[in-house]
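FW: tagging you since you asked about this chain on Friday. Here's the raw sequence from the shared folder, copied in full. Didn't touch anything.
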Amino acid sequence: MATQLHTEIIPELPPLLPPTPQPAAPKPKQAKKKLVRRTERDYSQALRRSFQFAFLLLNLYLGRTFYLWVRHFETGAAASPVARPAGVEGYLPIAGMMNFKYWLLTGHVPALHPAAMFLLITFAAIAFLFRKAFCSWLCPVGTISEYLWRTGQKLFRCSFHLPRWFDIPLRGLKYLLLGFFVWAVSTMSADAINGFMRSPYGVIADVKMLNFFRFIGETGLIVIGVLMLASVFVQNFWCRYLCPYGALLGLTSLFSPLRIRREASACIDCAKCAKACPSALPVDKLVTIKSAECTGCLECVAVCPAQGALQMSLPAPRPRTMPAWAMAAGIAALFFGIVGFAKTAGYWQTAVPNAVYQQLVPHAEEATHPMPGDPGLN
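HL: got it, structure written out here
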């Protein structure tokens, strides 16, 4: 009876249902930053291209003069119409490294190929103060590589980028090459360096370099052709992946006080800077560009539309902007200052009598590279 009454009084409960899911609250939209346009005109790329073409013309002049000088000794003419241009030693960076070590060990400026050492010091000083600006402002190989890529971009209407998993290891090749040359020079004593420089090969190393291109073989042509073709498709292929000189200057530039700096409050996140960067650096994601790959070309600064968002500047706590004209003036001052000092002090020209050149230059192909253990290198 009680059980029946209890059943009648308490109604049957409905089955429990899961709670109805509530729609997620919409994420608040990030307010779009207002663009404060730059009012001043950017002259950085006009300045940089002026430096590029001036230095390219200088190298063409040096090459032609050096060729005429070499031909004088090859033909046995009585008097040379031109003097040997010591500036061609800029193409002997290994000799520059060897002479620099010799100078550190002995305190004496070497008599053979001293210009190679002073040019190495010049370009390293530029890298220390103005990032790796030699590569993007002065280097003739870098200039040719840049315009090969620009030609490819006009032809194909796009840029080709290697995948990150391949790009990063490939970039390490230039550091491996640099490491090999640094190791080779580091193992040489001052006497070994002096012996190498005074060997027939060392005396006419610049002539050997010229003759490599004058009488280039099929293998050399194929290699250069592949590098040029690669530079058409991939921006700055040689500079980015294979140039040991660029690797040395990149490591030096890590100590530079100058940096590309992004002011996040002024940045409108358009990413134009990252797209313009020839080194494919994520400029739009970083506050300070510290990479050894930054060449100080200022292309990212040139394309930035926002006032005060991106600039080359000195470090905090009192950052100061480095305008393009000041950077250009600094590069020119270092180049002409160090080269001018070497010339004025009598450290520029190689001290070799013409009689030695008359004996060695016509038979340059017979001069072989000295090897460890050879007499005079120990």
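FW: The chain has two domains: 44-257+323-366, 259-321.
HL: agreed, and Residues 18 and 311 are 58 Å apart (CA to CA).
FW: great, closing this out.
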